[in-house]
Amino acid sequence: MARRLIPAREARIELMVVNSRFVATAAPAFGVAQARSFIDRVGAEFLDASHNVPAFVIGHGSSVTAHCSDDGEPSGTAGRPALAVLQGSGVGDVVVVVTRYFGGTKLGTGGLVRAYGDAVREVLRVLPLAEKVPTETLMLAVPYSLYERVRLLIEARQGDLLDEAFAADVTLAVRLAATDSAAFQAALTELSAGRLEALVVDTDAETMMPLGLCGGDLL
What we know:
- It is a single chain.
- By secondary structure, the protein is α+β, with helices and mostly antiparallel strands.
- Strands 1, 7, 8, 9 and 10 form a five-stranded antiparallel beta sheet that branches.
- Helix 4 packs antiparallel against helix 5.
- The chain folds into two domains: about 120 residues, Impact, N-terminal domain (Ribosomal Protein S5, domain 2, 2-Layer Sandwich), CATH 3.30.230; about 80 residues, Alpha-Beta Plaits (2-Layer Sandwich).
- A hairpin with a 2-residue loop joins strand 2 and strand 3.
- The chain is elongated.
- It contains five helices and ten strands, in the order E-E-E-H-E-E-H-E-H-E-H-E-E-H-E.
Protein backbone atom coordinates (compact mmCIF):
# COMPACT_ATOMS: atom_id res chain seq x y z
CA MET A 1 0.00 0.00 0.00
CA ALA A 2 1.34 3.48 -0.92
CA ARG A 3 2.20 5.72 2.02
CA ARG A 4 -0.46 8.36 2.71
CA LEU A 5 1.64 11.29 3.87
CA ILE A 6 -0.08 14.37 5.31
CA PRO A 7 1.03 17.49 7.21
CA ALA A 8 1.16 16.99 10.97
CA ARG A 9 0.65 20.71 11.63
CA GLU A 10 1.03 24.17 10.10
CA ALA A 11 4.41 25.52 8.94
CA ARG A 12 5.68 28.80 7.44
CA ILE A 13 8.83 30.11 5.74
CA GLU A 14 9.93 33.40 4.21
CA LEU A 15 12.35 34.11 1.38
CA MET A 16 13.46 37.13 -0.61
CA VAL A 17 13.68 37.00 -4.40
CA VAL A 18 15.31 40.16 -5.77
CA ASN A 19 13.24 42.75 -3.86
CA SER A 20 10.05 40.74 -3.43
CA ARG A 21 9.22 39.03 -0.12
CA PHE A 22 7.54 35.64 -0.34
CA VAL A 23 5.83 33.99 2.65
CA ALA A 24 4.71 30.37 2.20
CA THR A 25 2.27 28.90 4.73
CA ALA A 26 1.25 25.23 4.61
CA ALA A 27 -1.25 23.27 6.68
CA PRO A 28 -3.28 20.04 6.74
CA ALA A 29 -6.71 20.16 5.09
CA PHE A 30 -9.04 17.15 4.99
CA GLY A 31 -11.65 18.68 2.71
CA VAL A 32 -12.16 21.52 0.25
CA ALA A 33 -14.10 23.60 2.77
CA GLN A 34 -11.26 23.34 5.30
CA ALA A 35 -8.72 24.28 2.61
CA ARG A 36 -10.73 27.33 1.55
CA SER A 37 -11.16 28.41 5.17
CA PHE A 38 -7.38 28.29 5.62
CA ILE A 39 -6.86 30.27 2.40
CA ASP A 40 -9.30 32.92 3.64
CA ARG A 41 -7.54 33.10 7.01
CA VAL A 42 -4.10 33.60 5.48
CA GLY A 43 -5.50 36.14 3.03
CA ALA A 44 -7.00 38.11 5.93
CA GLU A 45 -3.69 37.94 7.82
CA PHE A 46 -1.79 39.32 4.81
CA LEU A 47 -4.49 41.66 3.58
CA ASP A 48 -1.91 44.26 2.46
CA ALA A 49 0.09 41.79 0.32
CA SER A 50 0.34 42.10 -3.45
CA HIS A 51 -0.83 38.50 -3.97
CA ASN A 52 -1.96 35.48 -1.90
CA VAL A 53 -1.55 32.50 -4.22
CA PRO A 54 -3.32 29.30 -3.05
CA ALA A 55 -2.88 25.66 -4.02
CA PHE A 56 -4.23 22.50 -2.44
CA VAL A 57 -4.31 18.75 -2.90
CA ILE A 58 -7.09 16.94 -1.01
CA GLY A 59 -6.92 13.13 -0.87
CA HIS A 60 -4.43 10.58 -2.17
CA GLY A 61 -3.94 8.33 -5.18
CA SER A 62 -6.83 8.17 -7.62
CA SER A 63 -9.17 10.11 -5.30
CA VAL A 64 -7.72 13.64 -5.37
CA THR A 65 -9.18 17.13 -5.61
CA ALA A 66 -6.61 19.75 -6.67
CA HIS A 67 -6.94 23.50 -7.10
CA CYS A 68 -4.77 26.55 -7.62
CA SER A 69 -5.11 30.23 -8.51
CA ASP A 70 -2.70 32.91 -9.74
CA ASP A 71 -4.45 35.59 -7.64
CA GLY A 72 -3.62 38.34 -10.10
CA GLU A 73 -0.15 37.20 -11.16
CA PRO A 74 0.31 36.55 -14.92
CA SER A 75 -1.55 33.39 -15.98
CA GLY A 76 0.35 30.18 -15.22
CA THR A 77 3.21 31.84 -13.33
CA ALA A 78 2.12 31.30 -9.72
CA GLY A 79 -0.67 28.85 -8.89
CA ARG A 80 0.33 26.23 -11.41
CA PRO A 81 4.01 25.94 -10.37
CA ALA A 82 2.97 25.93 -6.70
CA LEU A 83 0.51 23.11 -7.33
CA ALA A 84 3.04 21.15 -9.40
CA VAL A 85 5.46 21.10 -6.47
CA LEU A 86 2.70 19.96 -4.11
CA GLN A 87 1.65 17.17 -6.48
CA GLY A 88 5.24 16.00 -6.89
CA SER A 89 5.89 15.86 -3.14
CA GLY A 90 3.68 12.83 -2.44
CA VAL A 91 1.95 14.73 0.39
CA GLY A 92 -1.84 14.80 0.34
CA ASP A 93 -4.51 16.63 2.33
CA VAL A 94 -2.32 19.74 2.16
CA VAL A 95 -3.00 23.40 1.43
CA VAL A 96 -0.43 26.13 0.76
CA VAL A 97 -0.73 29.88 0.38
CA VAL A 98 2.25 31.76 -1.04
CA THR A 99 2.04 35.43 -0.12
CA ARG A 100 4.01 37.97 -2.16
CA TYR A 101 4.94 41.51 -1.27
CA PHE A 102 6.08 43.15 -4.51
CA GLY A 103 9.43 44.90 -4.06
CA GLY A 104 9.36 47.12 -7.11
CA THR A 105 11.40 44.90 -9.46
CA LYS A 106 9.54 42.70 -11.93
CA LEU A 107 10.73 39.09 -11.92
CA GLY A 108 9.49 38.14 -15.39
CA THR A 109 7.55 35.00 -16.27
CA GLY A 110 10.41 32.59 -15.60
CA GLY A 111 11.37 34.33 -12.38
CA LEU A 112 7.83 34.13 -11.03
CA VAL A 113 7.54 30.43 -11.86
CA ARG A 114 10.82 29.72 -10.05
CA ALA A 115 9.96 31.92 -7.07
CA TYR A 116 6.54 30.39 -6.41
CA GLY A 117 7.83 26.86 -6.93
CA ASP A 118 10.81 27.49 -4.64
CA ALA A 119 8.57 28.98 -1.94
CA VAL A 120 6.47 25.80 -1.84
CA ARG A 121 9.59 23.59 -1.86
CA GLU A 122 11.03 25.48 1.08
CA VAL A 123 7.88 25.26 3.22
CA LEU A 124 7.63 21.54 2.44
CA ARG A 125 11.21 21.12 3.71
CA VAL A 126 10.19 22.28 7.19
CA LEU A 127 6.67 20.83 7.20
CA PRO A 128 6.29 18.12 9.90
CA LEU A 129 4.69 15.04 8.40
CA ALA A 130 2.33 12.36 9.60
CA GLU A 131 0.95 9.27 7.91
CA LYS A 132 -2.63 8.04 7.62
CA VAL A 133 -2.57 4.37 8.61
CA PRO A 134 -5.06 1.77 9.86
CA THR A 135 -4.53 1.29 13.59
CA GLU A 136 -5.69 -0.91 16.44
CA THR A 137 -6.09 0.13 20.06
CA LEU A 138 -5.09 -2.61 22.50
CA MET A 139 -5.67 -3.03 26.23
CA LEU A 140 -3.52 -5.22 28.44
CA ALA A 141 -2.76 -5.73 32.12
CA VAL A 142 0.96 -6.00 32.86
CA PRO A 143 2.60 -7.08 36.12
CA TYR A 144 5.05 -4.52 37.51
CA SER A 145 7.94 -6.92 36.92
CA LEU A 146 7.37 -6.73 33.15
CA TYR A 147 6.19 -3.13 32.90
CA GLU A 148 9.43 -1.53 31.65
CA ARG A 149 10.08 -4.30 29.14
CA VAL A 150 6.55 -4.01 27.73
CA ARG A 151 7.06 -0.24 27.36
CA LEU A 152 10.21 -0.98 25.35
CA LEU A 153 8.21 -3.32 23.11
CA ILE A 154 5.68 -0.55 22.49
CA GLU A 155 8.46 1.91 21.64
CA ALA A 156 10.13 -0.59 19.33
CA ARG A 157 6.87 -0.84 17.35
CA GLN A 158 6.46 2.96 17.36
CA GLY A 159 3.28 2.54 19.34
CA ASP A 160 1.38 5.34 21.03
CA LEU A 161 0.84 4.76 24.76
CA LEU A 162 -2.60 6.31 25.28
CA ASP A 163 -3.19 5.58 28.97
CA GLU A 164 -1.72 3.88 32.04
CA ALA A 165 -3.63 2.87 35.19
CA PHE A 166 -1.62 1.68 38.19
CA ALA A 167 -3.34 -0.79 40.50
CA ALA A 168 -2.53 -4.45 41.29
CA ASP A 169 -1.17 -4.55 37.74
CA VAL A 170 -0.52 -1.77 35.24
CA THR A 171 -3.32 -1.50 32.69
CA LEU A 172 -2.11 -0.05 29.40
CA ALA A 173 -3.98 1.33 26.41
CA VAL A 174 -1.78 1.23 23.32
CA ARG A 175 -2.36 2.29 19.72
CA LEU A 176 -0.35 0.49 17.04
CA ALA A 177 -0.33 0.38 13.28
CA ALA A 178 -2.55 -2.55 12.33
CA THR A 179 0.37 -4.14 10.45
CA ASP A 180 2.38 -4.23 13.71
CA SER A 181 -0.32 -5.68 15.95
CA ALA A 182 0.39 -9.37 15.32
CA ALA A 183 4.14 -8.93 15.81
CA PHE A 184 3.51 -7.06 19.07
CA GLN A 185 1.24 -9.86 20.32
CA ALA A 186 3.92 -12.43 19.44
CA ALA A 187 6.58 -10.42 21.29
CA LEU A 188 4.29 -10.19 24.33
CA THR A 189 3.79 -13.94 24.30
CA GLU A 190 7.54 -14.56 24.13
CA LEU A 191 8.35 -12.01 26.82
CA SER A 192 5.78 -13.37 29.28
CA ALA A 193 6.04 -17.06 28.44
CA GLY A 194 2.45 -16.97 27.21
CA ARG A 195 0.95 -15.14 30.20
CA LEU A 196 0.20 -11.80 28.49
CA GLU A 197 -2.25 -11.12 25.71
CA ALA A 198 -3.56 -7.75 24.51
CA LEU A 199 -7.22 -7.28 23.70
CA VAL A 200 -8.18 -5.26 20.60
CA VAL A 201 -10.77 -2.72 21.76
CA ASP A 202 -10.93 -0.35 18.79
CA THR A 203 -9.86 0.03 15.16
CA ASP A 204 -9.45 3.12 13.00
CA ALA A 205 -8.85 3.02 9.24
CA GLU A 206 -7.32 6.53 9.08
CA THR A 207 -5.27 7.45 12.15
CA MET A 208 -2.70 10.25 11.90
CA MET A 209 0.61 8.84 13.07
CA PRO A 210 3.46 11.44 13.36
CA LEU A 211 6.61 10.41 11.49
CA GLY A 212 9.10 12.67 13.25
CA LEU A 213 10.44 13.96 9.95
CA CYS A 214 9.88 16.90 7.64
CA GLY A 215 9.14 17.13 3.97
CA GLY A 216 12.79 17.90 3.23
CA ASP A 217 13.55 14.23 3.85
CA LEU A 218 11.39 13.39 0.84
CA LEU A 219 12.33 16.18 -1.59
